[in-house]
Design brief:
183 residues; alpha+beta; Mannose-Binding Protein A, Chain A; 8-stranded mixed sheet; 10 strands
Length: 183
């Protein structure tokens, strides 16, 4: 009798898992929907291309951003709520990069560059052959070192270009209709 009860419970659990996997949810667990896309912030730290490869593993790319509304949504998704004393403390990688050959900024997912939100004086250091990847600064920050008393990123959500070396959190984006693999 116990074996029958156990078997019934196991079958019920299996059905529940299968039906949840096949349900018509717009995004899988851990992903958040905004308009026609799903997003997942990763707190783990990675270099720019390592982050892109992780996003590819789960069926997406580092996020592209195409409107102030999408930018604000992502700022809210990644903000810690702390004012940063250093503008680099909480940057997260986005999928924007500088292609030196064409001298243009492009999205890794191939979508058009129809929106940017650079912080004051950004992008900078383009002559040094290094700061060719973009990050979002989700939290407000000020720049005491270079501009005492001045806000560098007053509302949060502005972008900064960086070289590939710093390890950063990142945001993956995938279409709602993609086959989802969730980590």
């Amino acid at each position: 009798m116990r074996a029958l009860v156990f078997l019934s419970a196991l079958l019920g659990l299996s059905y529940s898992v299968i039906s949840n996997r096949n349900s018509r949810r717009p995004c899988y667990y851990g992903w958040t929907q905004f308009e026609q896309d799903c997003y997942k912030p990763y707190r783990m730290r990675a270099r720019f291309m390592e982050a892109e490869n992780k996003c590819k593993e789960v069926g997406g790319h580092l996020t592209s951003i195409h409107s102030p509304e999408e930018n604000d949504f992502l700022r809210g998704l990644t903000s810690t709520g702390h004012v940063q004393e250093n503008r680099w403390d909480n940057n997260v990688w986005i999928g924007f990069f500088y292609e030196k050959q064409s001298e243009t900024w492009k999205w890794l997912d191939g979508s058009p560059t129809d929106y940017t939100n650079w912080a004051t004086k950004e992008p900078n250091f383009m002559d040094y052959d290094s700061e060719y990847q973009a990050s979002m600064m989700p939290d407000p920050s000020f720049d005491e070192k270079d501009h005492p008393g001045n806000w560098y990123n007053p509302d949060g959500g502005q972008w900064n270009n960086l070289h590939d070396m710093p390890l950063r959190g990142f945001i993956c984006k995938q279409k709602k209709s993609s086959t989802h693999i969730s980590f």
